[in-house]
Write a structure and sequence with these properties.
With 129 residues, this protein is an all-alpha fold. It has a domain of 73 residues: Orthogonal Bundle (Protocatechuate 4,5-dioxygenase, Chain A), CATH 1.10.700. It is 56% helix and 0% strand. It is flat.
Length: 129
């Protein structure tokens, strides 16, 4: 039986807990494989073929091919593992975070340089501040 999870009502947030870890295990292991140059080459040569070597769901494979990081997180991906994908693509964390928030890289960088997103509206639903 799953534990009570009071953090499930944080708007726009997926908490990477034990259940998410189990769900995303193969996805995250695939990501770790990209640390090896030969695997990056094989992946970029034929993404679908390389992904078929992993016991990932079709939805996880599609999210990887689409580079839909938000969807990968929903499907158990951990951002620190997913970083291997955008790094293998020659992209920065700023690029991925901007894509995940629907912002341009310049706008995302400017927001972060100004102190980040304000907490108002980003608290769990039961909290008023």
């Amino acid at each position: 039986m799953a534990l009570e999870k009071p953090y499930l009502d944080i708007p726009g947030t997926t908490v990477f807990d034990a259940d998410m870890s189990r769900q995303g295990y193969s996805l995250n292991q695939f990501c770790m494989s990209l640390m090896q140059a030969e695997n990056r080459k094989r992946f970029h040569t034929d993404e679908g073929k390389y992904l078929d070597e992993w016991q990932m769901s079709d939805a996880q494979k599609q999210a990887v091919m689409d580079r839909d990081y938000n969807r990968m997180i929903e499907l158990g991906g951990n951002i620190y593992f997913l970083a291997k994908i955008f790094s293998a693509d020659g992209k920065s964390f700023v690029h991925a975070a901007a894509k995940m928030t629907g912002m341009t890289e310049d706008n995302y960088q400017a927001m972060m340089n100004a102190g980040g997103r304000p907490p108002k509206g980003n608290r769990y639903i039961g909290r008023s501040d």
